[in-house]
Amino acid sequence: MGKIVIDETIGKEQLRDTIYENLPKEHIQQVLQILTNKALKTTSYLSFLKNNYSLMKQFAPNLLTRLAFKVAFTKDNFETALTLVKDLQSGKKKKFPQDAPMNFVSNNWQKIVIQDGIIDQKNYELYVISLRSCLNKCKTFPNKCEFRGV
Q1: Which of 14, 74, 87, 123 is the most interior residue, by most CB within 10 Å?
Q2: Which domain holds residue 130?
Q3: SS3 breakdown of the chain: % helix, strand, coil, rounded to 5?
Q4: What is the predicted pLDDT for the residue at 34?
Q5: Is 115 inside any structural domain?
Q6: Is residue 136 domain-shared with residue 64, that is, in the same domain?
């Protein structure tokens, strides 16, 4: 694409037509939409989970109570966050605290978890339940699993 733009033999009037011949306008529009609409929100595993939040809410409480996790690194408060989400999911806790632990949330994901200056409960719960950042860094791992009778 860059070669087409800097090609001096293509006049300004033909440039757009030449670009569209090589790359359809619809494809360019899709890419621009992804890039300008906060790509992490629309293209990540978290966006998939968010779109299926109600379904996940049905299964998460059972899953979280049946899996026991060991936390290797306690300074990031992930264990506290996991307990908080277990309590919210199971109904033990009704109100989401705005001082919920955030030390384990990466800078990139904080842009998603924090919306308009406050922690978005749904995004926070989904991020914690996904366990992705903690499992990837080997800070959290399943200790035992009891799925009898499920």
Answers
A1: 123
A2: 42-145
A3: 60, 10, 30
A4: 64
A5: yes
A6: yes
Q: Which SS3 state, helix, strand or coil, does residue 145 take?
A: strand
The secondary structure of 64-88, three-state, reads HHHEEEEECCCCCCHHHHHHHHHHH
Total-model pTM:
0.58
Over the stretch 71-113, which tens digit does the pLDDT of each residue have? 766 677 888 998 999 899 888 999 999 999 998 888 878 888 8
Give a yes or no: residue 150 inside a domain: no
Helices 53-66 and 78-90, axial angle in degrees (round to 10)? 110
Please tell me whether residues 125 and 68 are part of one structural domain: yes
What's the pLDDT tens digit per position in 31-60?
777 666 554 445 566 667 777 777 777 778
117 exposed, middle or buried (CB, 10 Å; 0-12, 13-18, 19+)? exposed
Domain co-membership, 19 together with 57: no
Average pLDDT over residues 17-34: 82
Is residue 9 predicted with pLDDT exceeding 70?
Answer: yes
- Indicate whether 73 and 106 sit together in one domain: yes
CA–CA separation, 51 and 25 (whole Å) = 28
